[in-house]
Structures are given as C-alpha cells and as structure tokens.
Amino acid sequence: MSSVDEISVKDGADFDFIVVGGGTAGSMVACRLAENPRIKVLIVEAGVGNAINIPEIRTPSGAMELRNSQYDWAYKTTLIKRDDYERVEKPNTRGKIIGGSSSVNYFTWAPGS
C-alpha cells in the first residue's frame, strides 16, 4: 500500500501511533515512525489523500483555483490599516489534503515517492 492510499479503518483496529494531521510535519513524523517495520502508524487527515489526479494541484501556479474549494481550509487573514482604520480580509489558502499547504502548489509540483 502506498503512503497516499485512503483506507477505512475497521472498528477495533489498533495502531502503535496515530498522527493527527497529514500536513508537512505530520507526514514527516509518520514517515520516521514507519521506518520501523514492527510499528503500525495511522495518519488522520480531514482532506483527501492523493493529489495526483487533481488538475488544479498538478498545474503549476494552480493554487489560486483552489481557494474556497474542498482542498482549502478557507482561512481569512484580517489586515487593519491604522491611518483610517480600514479592515480588510484576505484569503489565506491552507491545504486540506495529505501534505497540507505544501500540496496546494504555489508554482511547483514535486510529488513524493
């Protein structure tokens, strides 16, 4: 099974480690833990597991098309100008997918092996 396969976990299944969040850091932690073949590791991610068949992610600079999609947490950043107290909300695209924000592809496509 490859590292990006989506699986259903049966009731009662046991794991040595459960990593919550399959972003850059969570995936790396799970990868290091899985180097020991006797250890069973589960990654829990809210988003999809495999970006390879998503054209917006495979296309260089396709991240703008991902805003407010199922692959984006749709966070907003609020900027406040102090001169006239103007409040501006800007989108802050964050990846809701295995690989996290590194998978939403700002100008690159470098899938792992």
Automatic annotation (TrEMBL):
Alphabetical UniProt keywords: Cell wall, Secreted
Highest rank taxon of the organism: Eukaryota
One Pfam family from the record: NAD_binding_8
Protein localization: Secreted, Cell wall
InterPro entries, sorted: FAD/NAD-bd_sf, GMC_OxRdtase
Primary location group: secreted
Record GO terms (molecular function): flavin adenine dinucleotide binding; oxidoreductase activity
Gene3D superfamilies xref list: FAD/NAD(P)-binding domain, Glucose Oxidase, domain 3
Family: Belongs to the GMC oxidoreductase family.
UniProt xrefs under PANTHER family: CHOLINE DEHYDROGENASE, MITOCHONDRIAL, GLUCOSE-METHANOL-CHOLINE GMC OXIDOREDUCTASE
Protein name, per record: Glucose-methanol-choline oxidoreductase N-terminal domain-containing protein
